[in-house]
Amino acid sequence: MAMQITDSNFEEVKTSAGEKPLVIDFWATWCGPCRMIAPIVEEMAEKYADQVVIGKCNVDESPELPTKYGIRNIPTLLFFKNGELVDKSVGALPKNELEAKIKALI
Fold first, then answer.
1. CA-CA-CA-CA torsion for 12, 96, 105, 84, nearest 10 degrees?
2. Is the pLDDT reported for residue 59 higher than 90?
3. Which among 24, 40, 57, 86 has the fewest CB atoms less than 10 Å away?
4. Which residues make Cβ contacts (< 8 Å) with residue 19, sequence separation at least 6?
5. Domain 3-105: which topology?
């Protein structure tokens, strides 16, 4: 299951991920494309639980984090490796593309 990431716990999550890459899905309840990719994000969170930390950030509940990373459209996925932002994807990704991006992080 994808972890809930908020303005207040982001730094802790990023630090606790340690050597594992971190993927954050920025979404909102009213966003149709966000709802489309939600099951895919959850599936990847379960499939790669031992290798990658995957979380979701609701942009309406945590507005500071999306602002910090310049997120203007959702869904947006950010990919971190060793605590550094290494990739960004805007829009609903097909399952095979999301999985390829995750595998590239590992």
1. -50
2. yes
3. 86
4. 82
5. Glutaredoxin (3.40.30)
Whole-model pTM: value is 0.94
Q: Encode pLDDT of 80-100 as tens digits.
A: 999 899 999 999 999 999 999
Distance from C-alpha of 59 to C-alpha of 81, rounded to nearest angstrom: 22
Residue ranges of domains in the chain: 3-105
Token pair 């979380």 is found at 55
Distance CA 53, CA 25 (A): 11
What's the confidence (pLDDT) of residue 18? 84
Query: What is the reported pLDDT for 1?
Result: 87
As annotated, the active-site residues are: 31, 34
The CA-atom distances, in angstroms, between 51 and each of 21, 81, 103 are 7, 12, 9
